[in-house]
Design a protein that fits this description.
Shape of chain B: rod-shaped
Shape of chain A: elongated
Helix content of chain A: 40-55%
Strand content of chain B: 35-45%
Chains: A alpha+beta (401), B alpha+beta (383), C alpha/beta (235)
Structural class of chain A: alpha+beta
Strand order of the largest sheet of chain B: 3-12-15-14-13-16
Largest sheet of chain A: 10 strands, mixed
Oligomer: heterotrimer
Strand content of chain A: 15-25%
Amino acid sequence: MISLAGRDILHSWGKFVFTGVGLGLLIGVTLVMAGVYRGMVDDGKALLDNSGADLWVVQQDTLGPYAESSSINDDLYHTVRAMPGVVEVANVTYLTMQVRKGDNDVRAMVVGIIPGAAWGSPGWPTYLVAGRQITRGHYEAVADIASGFRLGDEITIRRNRYQVVGLTRRMVSSSGDPMVFIPLKDAQEAQFLKDNDAIWQSRRRTAANPAFNRPGQPDLLDAVNASQTNSTSVNAILVRIAPGSDPETVAQSIRRWKRLTVHTRAEMEEILIGKLIATSARQIGMFLAILSIVSAAIVAFIIYSLTMDKIREIAVLKLIGTRNRTIAGMILQQAVALGVIGFAVGKITATFAAPYFPKYVLLLPMDAVIGFVAVMIICALASLIAIRMALKVDPAEAIGG
Amino acid sequence: MNITAMQRRKFALIAVIVVLGALLAYVALRSGPLAPIAVTTAKVESQPLRPALFGVGTIDAERTYQVGPTVAGRVKSLTVNVGDQVVAGQIIGQMDPVDLDDRLAAQVSAMQGAEASVREASARQAHAASEASRYESLLAARATSEEVLAVKRQDLVAARAAAANARSNLERMRADYSGLQSQRGNLRLIAPASGIVTLREVEPGAAVAGGQTVIEIIDPASVWVNVRIDQVSSAGLRAGLPARVELRSGDGKVLQGRVLRIEPRADPVTEETLVKVVFDTLPVPLPPLGEYAEVTLDLAPIGKGPVVPNAAIRRMGDSIGVWKLDGGDPVFVPVELGKADLSGRVQVLKGLDDGDTIIVYSEQELTGNSNISVVDRIPGVTP
Amino acid sequence: MANGISIAGLRKRYGEGDTAVDALKHVDMEVAPGEVVGLIGPSGSGKSTLLKCLGAVIDPTAGRMTLGGEVIYDDGWKVSDLRALRRDKIGFVFQAPYLIPFLDVVDNVALLPMLAGLSNTEARARAMELLTALDVHHRAAAMPSQLSGGEQQRVAIARGLINRPPVILADEPTAPLDSERAMAVMRILNEMAKKYQTAIIIVTHDEKIIPTFKRIYHIRDGITSEEAGEGRPIS
């Protein structure tokens, strides 16, 4: 017995390949959309994983430092360090801002980390792809390659220039902005100090204020100006706890200081994924669902119309005595072949297209497997409809008049 | 045998399917979580290390003099401008004397009056003395009474007292006069030492309070850099360390210097140690005071020992260590680290030996089961 | 008769009650094995309906049909698998070739035996035999679209004959052909009939071939009547 499905495919291979590729692109888009969704969630998790922290100590009653702005004194870390169960603490600042290189600027999350020989300290980049970690206390930066910066580049953050000494990968904020790590003091200055123009303005305003500019006390004005340019705040304290300790217990003992809020890793995940990216993720999720339904409908339609194209031949086949089973098998085989080609094309294009997207696209093998199963089921169901149509054909139609 | 169109097509279709299948297999194995992680490696070598400390400082001058009046007044004139060279003792300005000159003149008159009073009292004293001695001789000749002599002696005492009074009054007037004179002298602003004028705070005609700075002078030879070094990274800091100073405006030029002293008081708020660094040779032209400089202090070199790049240092759970290649598989080795230099090399005290191959850069986080492939450069990183 | 076609009292009614229409009122027909008869009637006379009943494509209302020695209908189908009946016992030749466009000529013909269970090689061998007899074997590897109308018709005839059915039903097989080709088709059909003892009914109103029939059935308003034909020999 010859394969009727195979012969038909061979005969109109152009139509078939064209349809298969078109279907493949549609499936590819759906797979990429699933990858975008997964990438968003992974961005959120990456931020938490890369911080190396078990607890986040932030301003009282805030969801900070990622979801909400939080500002605490930078000397509080001494007291947190002394709490039971705490092994290592690190001050950290986060600020999403524009980082300039030459004429371009890049949106990045500038992270202030404690410099020096603090290897593996929370907040530090956990691995590099080029260069080295920061060794000097000022004016050095480690940037993520997603920023487009290279080793040796000079970048400008607020009023200072930094040299890129190291590169990282997958160190991104929850919204996919690349991270740039700079020494803490520089980051504090960047976040809490304004730029030159603003400082001039505020000095003029202070000088115009008679309360600060007393004639008999020339040093008062200087003292006021100096206090205004002080920056002793950070956004959070990252805490690493002793192995085997319960994060919630340690967090509770820190919370008793009342002026601080502490989030455990589980709570941060809930905040980041549940609050920060929830809306965007749902948005993408809905789009993914719609896309899948549309893809399914199109696949069904394609298989149906492929069958309808052959309805006369099917009538003849039925008339000359072909078994229903054989005709059904031909339709099903074609649908499955189309599905397999479509899936292969789709998976290949998705994999090659994914790196070109501006944000991270995570294609999981599980998603591909689920996608494959879904495509097969849709093809089978669509062929059922087509088979029903085919079998209902009256062979008598082949005999005219 | 001829290959029919059908057979040609069959071959073509099979070829397409094979290609598609191969691409699919490639995609499945080389990307996503199944793909091997690209890593770069390096060999651990014994090298000497030159650790260094880094800090940011501002240019300042040790010997800074703020010159101003001791009492409130109005500036009359200034004879120097910012940037001028002055010598010690040079008059650099004048305060407005206001009524001081008049008061001096008044004092002179008062002194003259007092001198006249002294002369008058002296004359009276002389007269009383001669009267007293005349009446003494008269008494001896029984030409007058004892009473009259007593009165005349009394007059002499009184006259002596009056003369003394007048003389002390004159002294007081003289003292007042010299007091006013020194005040007049104070109205001259005099450079306490040689140097360069750096500030001219007020202009002639402005009223200033006592003690307010009118002119600031610095001794350019005493220019130093006020450096702040993070306490955390300041181990090994001591006076005499050689220093390399790079001025903000220096365009990369490095000036040599050394640590003069470490301030006994550190900054508890910023947690920095304050250090004074002086130049071996004064830079010409003098950098503006307050300019930022980046200072690197070279510590004593450390002898040879295994050294790793700091990018290789990772954390695994609770320990700090390095991923070592053991027969092609990554193994996490906890290490004890020593000193580091500023170019990212760190000494390994325990845990690694010379010749060990370690993982420096990796595409992703590594675990014990990671499937790795050693490359020259991590893909995606342009040199 | 042992083989051949035998129809007695066949009736086909469409619809019910007042609107009922009898497409076939009373049909009697006998075709001996090896005989080629013509079936002539105006349009609407029921000849297509008769073919469809004979071809087991529609259900008659009443009557008796015997095909190849087997009673297939006697006021109800006596055969359970009509499709197998069509495949094994009846060969169809249509007005249009209706070849499967995505199968080459030899596979178009060999399909039926393959469906019946023959191996591909055997089926193709048999197909080549027939194609040779019909003088289209040189086009065995071509696709139907590459053949001329006459060649396609001959391939269609080959397909109709391939399972060596006892009965062939042909519906206007010569209508699109010129007289030379029409005669060629008639010659082939007669040869096949004689060779394989097939009973052939040809529905036609083609004046070119009617004289060749020895016996003709007329059908009008659903009733058949027999007539002797001219029986002119085919040149």
